[in-house]
Specification:
InterPro entries: LPS_assembly_LptE
Function: Together with LptD, is involved in the assembly of lipopolysaccharide (LPS) at the surface of the outer membrane. Required for the proper assembly of LptD. Binds LPS and may serve as the LPS recognition site at the outer membrane.
Shape: flat
Number of helices: 3
Distance between the termini: 62 Å
Largest sheet: 5 strands, mixed
Number of domains: 2
Low-confidence stretches: none
Membrane topology: Lipid-anchor
Oligomer: single chain
Radius of gyration: 22 Å
Subcellular location: Cell outer membrane
CATH topology of the largest domain: Double Stranded RNA Binding Domain
GO molecular function: lipopolysaccharide binding
Number of strands: 5
Mean pLDDT: 89
């Protein structure tokens, strides 16, 4: 059997598997819809990337209002920050590894003060190797890691918001 015949056979098996999963009712997990229609986001910095990602995630199902009194749920952010620390360095004081973190402290309540989500901290950490010879590539890798960690935090916040029952 030649390699092209093997590729065709594997492609046919993969397609058959996809059809079988679709036929049995299998679906990827979809995000739950929140039980509220209006939310106020309080405490985000104007250029917060977590805030922007959360607004995008909420947009299809929930209207974001500026006045907390007009909201059904108030999501209050007390800390939204990126951190970076040196984990390993050489004897010549050259950095070899960083640890980067994204930290979010938040709580949710109703306009009348009923607590829906107790003050919570979400923290994501990643290690990032570093090399002076690949500094630009490492900058891009760091930006990608931060974006992935922030998206993960947004997904976790969305799950907590979806669990709220008014």
């Amino acid at each position: 059997m030649s390699s092209s015949d093997r590729r065709r056979a594997l492609g046919a098996i993969a397609a058959l598997g996809a059809f079988a999963l679709g036929g049995c009712g299998f679906q990827l997990r979809r995000p739950q819809k929140p039980s509220f229609e209006r939310i106020a986001l309080v405490g985000f910095k104007p250029k917060s990337t977590v805030g922007a990602a959360l607004r995008r995630a909420l947009a299809p199902d929930v209207r974001i209002v500026d006045v907390p009194a007009a909201a059904q749920v108030i999501l209050e952010i007390t800390e939204d920050k990126r951190e970076k620390s040196v984990v390993a360095s050489t004897s010549a004081a050259q950095v070899r590894e960083f640890e980067i973190r994204v930290r979010l402290h938040f709580s949710a309540r109703t306009p009348d003060g009923r607590e829906l989500i107790a003050p919570t901290e979400l923290l994501r950490e990643e290690d990032l190797s570093y090399s002076e010879s690949a500094a630009l590539a490492k900058q891009f890798e760091e930006a990608d890691l931060y974006r992935d960690m922030e998206n993960d935090i947004v997904i976790q916040v969305m799950r907590r918001l979806a669990a709220i029952r008014l």
